[in-house]
Amino acid sequence: MERRYSDMSKHELRLEIAELKEKARKAEQMGMVNDFAVQQRKAQMAEAYLLDPSAFNPGDVCQVVVNPELTAFTISYMNGVFAWGTHQDSDNVVAYPISILKQVR
After folding, report:
1. Single pTM value for the model
2. Around Cβ 103, how many Cβ atoms within 10 Å?
3. Which residues are 86's β-sheet partners?
4. What DSSP line would sit under 49-86, residue for residue?
5. What's residue 37's pLDDT?
6. What does the buried/exposed string (b/e) look like for 57-90 if buried means 16 or more CB atoms within 10 Å of the residue's CB?
7. Residues near 27 by beta carbon (within 8 Å), at least 6 away in sequence
8. What is the pLDDT of residue 105?
9. Low pLDDT (below 50) residues in the chain
10. Are 25 and 47 in contact (CB under 8 A)?
């Protein structure tokens, strides 16, 4: 049975991330686009648990690094390793794992 990322130690998370990235690499080589995307997202989620959520605060403006075409993202509130907020050009509230956010200011 798989364990939750929140229950894993930093060492276990790093091993899990390496394994997921290897699975993603193999899926990409085999042309399995969906499996590649799933493994990549799992690795991003695990990476979020290696970061300190207190480094992200409401009002912080971030860029979504996996999709630089998105407009600036302003954090409204934090819930665990997820930042909830809105994009500059929208009122829709969305959430991102902090591992895919880069603070702009």
Report:
1. 0.88
2. 13
3. 74
4. TTS-GGG--TT-EEEETT-TTSPPEEEEEEETTEEEEE
5. 96
6. eeebebbbeeeeebeebbbeebeebbbebbeeee
7. 33, 35, 36, 39
8. 66
9. none
10. no
